[in-house]
Amino acid sequence: MLCSRFDAQQELERTRASRTAGRVAESEGLRRLERDLHDGPQQRLIRTLMDLGRAERAISEDPQRAGALIGEIRGQTNDTLAELRRLSRGIAPPLLVDRGLAAALAEIAGNSVIPTTVRCPSDRLPLHVETGVYYVASEALANANKYSGASRISIDVAIGRQDAAVRIADDGVGGAQSLAGHGLEGLAERVASLEGALQIDSPAGAGTRVEAVIPCAS
Question: What CATH superfamily classification does 92-215 receive?
Answer without folding.
Answer: Histidine kinase-like ATPase, C-terminal domain (3.30.565.10)
